[in-house]
Design goal:
The protein is an alpha/beta fold and about 350 residues long. The chain has 2 domains: about 80 residues, Ribosomal Protein L15, Chain: K, domain 2, CATH 3.100.10.20; about 240 residues, CRISPR-associated endonuclease Cas1, C-terminal domain (Four Helix Bundle (Hemerythrin (Met), subunit A), Up-down Bundle), CATH 1.20.120. Helix content is about 50%, strand content about 15%. The strands form 4 sheets. A 5-stranded mixed beta sheet has the order 1-2-6-8-9, with helices on both faces. Strands 5-4-3-7 form a 4-stranded mixed beta sheet. Strands 10-11 form a two-stranded antiparallel sheet. About 40% of the residues are buried.
Length: about 350
Amino acid sequence: MKKLLNTVYVTTEGAALKKDGETLVAEIEGAEKTRIPLHMLGAVVAFGPILISPALIGACSGAGIAIVLLDRAGRFQARVEGPVSGNVLLRRAQYRAADGPEGVEIVRSFVMGKVANQRAVLRRALRDHGAEMAASDRAAIEDAAARLAAILRRAQLADASIEALRGSEGEAANRYFAVFDHLIRSPDPELAWTGRSRRPPLDPVNALLSFLYTLLVHDCRSACEGVGLDPAVGFLHRDRPGRPSLALDLMEELRAPLADRLALSLINRRQLRAADFRRMDGGATLLTDEARRTVLTAWQERRKEERLHPFVQERAPFGLVPHLQAQLLARHLRGDLDAYPPWFWS
């Protein structure tokens, strides 16, 4: 249970939230854990089976405090609000920004966060395993990290258009994945990296990445829904029927440190081997059922790990970062923040 950006996140299954006067009371197994005055809250986000008393629901609805219900995996289920809501104003601001010149700065933040975090993953690999690498592998990673730094500087230029920023993002992804094989330390030749493939993934590493990206985009979509943003209207990703473009935008800066790093850990620590993948008749490669359970367990553990949020300046679990970033984007769109602050991993 954690309070960040005037939102209470309840992640302990079986917790009970009640109203005592003008205060929210949280209990676990009958023992009181915290008390928070309602006037200090903007939202309550509950993960999984959490008991919320009718009195608290009524008090929150009357005070304009949203209650967001997510399942155990963090997928959006419902949002409970009173009759007065600012969501229509927030979404109008989102649509105006997506169609107007101010969208450039939001795209710039997404791109800078993504490229900086990709570079951080490469630098971390050099720091942790550089001494064990072949000189050619180390040189390739160092060159890619230097190229990403140059792309990052270019993205900061004031006159960059959305199309130019999209081009920088694509170039950075190519540079990053060009050296991804140097980060894999598995003895299984079947787990070698030959390039990104999607829909369907054609090799084990791509199958693992695609599965993790699916989990991450679910979290980002829930975060958008939870704060009242329209997950279908993005800035970096163009609108397309059925595509959660804004959720994909939020995911970009989180892919490398959350999904890619976890994939590398599972492979390099031999938690996943070649036998944990199966090739289908059409060429697609999928995780076995047992391997999928291994990945889901590791994903849930990774989401519990805490890092200092560079903007909020508080420690927060990885699993709450999409929700914090969605809140910060909503605050920017409402005019409470001058710019959208990307999340930088270190």
